[in-house]
Amino acid sequence: MKKSGVENLWVHFVQTTYVADIGAIRVEIRVGQPNTALDRLLIRSGHSCWAFLTAQNPSGDQPEDANKRATARLREELLRYDTHEGWGIPDPPNDHPPEPSFMVLGMSSEAAEEFGRRYGQMAVLTGKLGSVAKLIESGGGL
C-alpha cells in the first residue's frame, strides 16, 4: 500500500472511538485523550495499564469468515488476561461497521505490540494509569 494509504488508515485509527462495557461501566477511549473513568476502573481492578486489541482486517480488508476465525483465536489467547468485549467505532460513521475488539486490563504496551504483530495489525491502542491513550505501531499489517 502507498504511504498515503497508510496515512489515511492512521487518521482513521485516530478518529475511531474505542468502546468496551466493563461491568456496569461503559468506557469510551479516544487516542490522545485522558480517561478518568478508565483510570478509576484500573484502580479498582488493581491494574496500572491496558490495551485495546482486534484481529479484524489485518493488512486491510479480509473476508468476514476469516475475521470471525481470527477474532475467536484472539479471544482464546486472551483468556489468561482481564479481558472484556469491545468495539472500534468509526467516527465520523463511514461504510465500515464497528470492529469487534477486546479491552485488556493489565496488559503492557510491549505485550500488546506482540499481539498486534502476530495478528497482522498495523497498530494497537495502549495506555497506563493517569496517561492518555496512545496508538502505537505494532509492526504487523501494512
Mean pLDDT across all residues, rounded?
Answer: 91
H/E element order = HEEHEHEEHEE
Helix content: 25-40%
Strand content: 25-35%
Total helical elements: 4
The biggest beta sheet is recorded as: 7 strands, antiparallel
Keywords summarizing the entry:
4 helices; alpha+beta; globular; 7-stranded antiparallel β-sheet; 29% strand; single chain; 142 residues
Q: Could you walk me through the main structural features you see in this protein, from its secondary elements to its overall organization?
A:
The protein is of the alpha+beta class and 142 residues long. The protein has one domain. The chain is built from 4 helices and 7 strands; from the N terminus they run H-E-E-H-E-H-E-E-H-E-E. Strand 1 and strand 2 form a beta hairpin. The longest helix is centred in the middle third of the chain and has 14 residues. It is globular, with a radius of gyration of 14 Å. The protein starts with a helix and ends in a 5-residue tail after the last strand. The model has no long low-confidence stretch (mean pLDDT 91).
Brief summary:
The chain has 142 residues and is an alpha+beta fold. It is 33% helix and 29% strand.
Strand-helix topology:
Elements lengths: L2 H13 L1 E6 L2 E5 L6 H10 L3 E5 L10 H14 L4 E8 L9 E7 L3 H10 L4 E6 L5 E4 L5
Antiparallel strand pairs: 1-2, 1-4, 3-5, 3-6, 4-5, 6-7
